[in-house]
Amino acid sequence: MAKRSKAQRQKTGLYYAREARHMSRSELVRLSGVSKQQLSRLENGQIRLRLDHLKPFASHLGFTPEQILLWGRYPGTGDHIESSDVLHEAPRGEAFGPVAAQIPELDTRAGLGGGGIPAREVRKEGRHTDPLKSEGWVFPQNFIREQLHTSSSRLLVLDTRGDSMAPTIMSGDRVVIDTGHKTPTPDGLYAIRDSFEGVVVKRLQLLRSSRPPRVKIISDNPNHTTEEVPLSELEIVGKVLCCLKLF
Predict the structure, then answer these.
(1) Which of 43, 122, 215, 220 is 20 to 30 A from 58, comparing alpha carbons?
(2) Domain containing 140 — which CATH number?
(3) Is the pTM here over 0.70, yes or no?
(4) Domain interval for residue 225
(5) 1 is a domain residue
(6) How far is 120 from 170, CA to CA, in rounded Å?
(7) CB-count burial class (<10 Å; 0-12, 13-18, 19+) for 220
(8) What is the count of structural domains for the chain?
């Protein structure tokens, strides 16, 4: 019997990040400008990943290079973890963020109607890195697949503040966001980046007859104003899938 010449290589975080976004290899090649052969080698572990390898892909996949490099061990990355991965530590030996099996929650006081805003880092390419709480959330996988119709790697929890979306969402309610859904279709509730660089929840209505496309930003509380902005100027963090309420 012929022996296998090489052990099968393990897929890297770049492969899992692309799969989490349901993006084909050809599409990522087109967006990044990296050859298909090079992408294949990076995904299949034929090249040892470094952060500079991942920078051309990160903005198109919606993950930071650090998240891709440490996939399954970094907050906000998905389901592809080993059974022994129950606690992960930062390089300095200090725990960071929720473990990989948990859904991360933004540590933010940016509210639905204003409020204190924590310091957050804006990278050179314009991406934000919002602070995360030290513990995340755990939802049954059946609930995520059959009720939310997404994957855990795309989910984010937001603790809301303010009354602009009352009575639909009250201050202190938490919402679950699908970060893979960044276009305002269908109309509904979305988490967006506001003018103060905070993350807030608003009702979005795409004005389909306008050219270029514009979006109406609506507060359910009639005491708050409605805005209208070009779609190109709106940063959508994700679509709101459900709300967690306390009674």
Answers:
(1) 215
(2) 2.10.109.10
(3) no
(4) 105-244
(5) no
(6) 24
(7) middle
(8) 2
